[in-house]
Amino acid sequence: MKIAANDVLLEVEDHGPTDGTPLLLIMGLGMQLVAWHEEFVDSLVQRGFRVIRFDNRDIGLSQRFDHLGVPNLPVLGVRAALGLAVHSGYSLADMAADTAGLLDALNIPAAHVCGASMGGMIAQHMAVRHPDRVKSLTLMMTTSGARKLPQPSMRVRAALIKRPARPADVDSIIAHYVQLYRVIGSPGYPAGDEFLQRRLGLSVRRSYRPRGVARQLAAIIADGDRSALLAKITAPTAVLHGRDDPLVPVAAAHDLAAKIAGASLDIIDGWGHDLPMPLWPRFVQVIEGAASRA
């Protein structure tokens, strides 16, 4: 269903009883609500949560921002590396306002919030800028954006900027994403080709918006270092990260946990930058643990 949040139309799915404990799931860069697997969502519903998953602005079935054009990402990257100001069409703070507006539209005063990757960055802003809306915070495979932190290897960066061999062909796009997940996925929990093709194919056929991904990436680059904000987070926080994450190296998790008062830290061996099925029970346990501290 479409919901107007912060004057932006978001595609939203609301799972579980309306009197369940609200849990808002925020997905990462270019990823759609279907990246939160239905069985994972069901396992949270079975524990009493009312689970809300949605497409971030400019991705999936949510409102497009094509009028903003396509950012020059190489130029933005150079400016950021030089410590110069970087501007984007919208900000991660705007996307955090979308999430708060979504809760307004659903008449939910406050929710537990779980954000993955870019979704974790948005969740950080939400916890600081809308603290009364965040009952607890689970930050998965994400970062403060501090410039001193280790960065992805050249192999990972090359995989990220590579494009499908045939950008207008669905099978080529799916094959491209399968190869990307082979690079950034979990070495200890490798997904089979059939599973990846089915899940990534679901996303690509549902919506494919490379321009929206570029604008979201520009917002990440422009956001920079959030370290100064983290001391303002008061919600009970859990930091959840893979020791073998090639996209956001594990040092980012230790950095986050050190900068957020009272944050718990759970590092999982063999986990990369994805959501492998064997780890879903542990993810649920960590989310429940953060919620229980609220």
Radius of gyration: 18 Å
Number of helices: 11
Structural domains: how many: 1
How much of the polypeptide forms β-strand, as a percent range? Answer: 15-25%
The geometry reads as globular
Residue windows where pLDDT falls under 50 for at least 5 positions: none
Strand order of the largest sheet: 1-2-4-3-5-6-7-8
Q: Helical content, roughly?
A: 40-55%
Straight-line N-to-C gap: 30 Å
Structural class: alpha/beta
List SSEs in N-to-C order: EEEHEHHEHEHHHHHEHEH
In the CATH hierarchy, what is the architecture at level 2?
Answer: 3-Layer(aba) Sandwich
**How is the main sheet built?**
8 strands, mixed
Q: Would you kindly provide a written description of the structure presented here, covering whatever features stand out?
A:
Helix 3 packs across helix 4. The chain has 294 residues and is α/β, with parallel strands linked by helices. It is globular and about 45 Å long. The protein has an eight-stranded mixed beta sheet, sandwiched between helices. Strand 7, helix 10 and strand 8 form a beta-alpha-beta unit. The model has no long low-confidence stretch (mean pLDDT 95). The longest helix is centred in the middle third of the chain and has 15 residues. It has a single domain, classed as 3-Layer(aba) Sandwich (Rossmann fold), CATH 3.40.50.1820. The protein starts with a strand and ends with a helix. The protein has eleven helices and eight strands.
What's the SSE blueprint?
Elements: E1 2-5, E2 8-15, E3 21-26, H1 38-45, E4 49-54, H2 73-81, H3 92-105, E5 111-116, H4 118-129, E6 134-140, H5 154-161, H6 170-184, H7 193-206, H8 210-223, H9 227-230, E7 237-242, H10 251-259, E8 264-268, H11 280-292
Parallel strand pairs: 3-4, 3-5, 5-6, 6-7, 7-8
Antiparallel strand pairs: 1-2, 2-4
